[in-house]
Amino acid sequence: MVRHGKHSHAKPNQTAEEGKEVWVNMVKGIIKTVGDSNEDLTIGLERICGSKKVPRRWMNLNKPKFVSFLKYIRFKIPPGSTAADQLWGLFSKAIEVEKKKEIKRNTKPSKTGNKDETIDENEITALIEEKMEN
């Protein structure tokens, strides 16, 4: 705690900054994967990436909270558009991969000497491309 006069303030949490960095990198990875294949998705992703806001506890994000976040950053969803659903599909897959990475980082290597399995960026790309095909 840092004390300023009568008020005590918590120090900025370094893990929160790391979380923001992971979020931004994840969004940039999705942008690279989508490319120019879908204009609505590209616009939405650029809007999300350009926003200084990051959803709280984004690793546990669900669809209603994601749609609420889109409204919060003033991303206007055109009537009849499936952009929000498609964005959620991409983000849900990317979050799933990030959760797997976090689990791998937090688990200790086994004593049997097996090589650690790492989640490759190609895996996230494959999951996103699979989702876009559907």
Detailed description of the structure:
The protein is mainly alpha-helical. It has one domain (14-107, 116-133). Helices cover 60% and strands 4% of the residues. The chain contains five helices and two strands, in the order ββααααα. It has helices spanning 14-34, 39-50, 63-72, 83-106, 121-133, and strands at 2-4, 7-9. A two-stranded antiparallel sheet has the order 1-2. Strand 1 and strand 2 form a beta hairpin. Helix 1 packs across helix 5 (121-133) and helix 2 (39-50) packs across helix 4 (83-106). The longest helix is centred in the last third of the chain and has 24 residues, at 83-106. Residues 113-118 have low confidence and may be disordered.
**Shape summary:** globular
The number of domains = 1
Strand order within the widest sheet? 1-2
| Helix share bin | 55-70%
What is the percentage of strand-forming residues? under 5%
Number of separate helices: 5
The count of β-strands is: 2
Cα-to-Cα separation, first versus last residue: 49 Å
Low-confidence stretches: 113-118
Largest sheet descriptor: 2 strands, antiparallel
Radius of gyration from the alpha-carbon trace, in angstroms: 18 Å
Secondary-structure element order, N to C: EEHHHHH
The averaged pLDDT comes out at 76
Structural class: mainly alpha
List keywords for this structure.
134 residues; 4% strand; mainly alpha; 2 strands; two-stranded antiparallel sheet; 60% helix
Summed up, what is this model?
With about 130 residues, this protein is mainly alpha-helical. The chain is built from five helices and two strands.
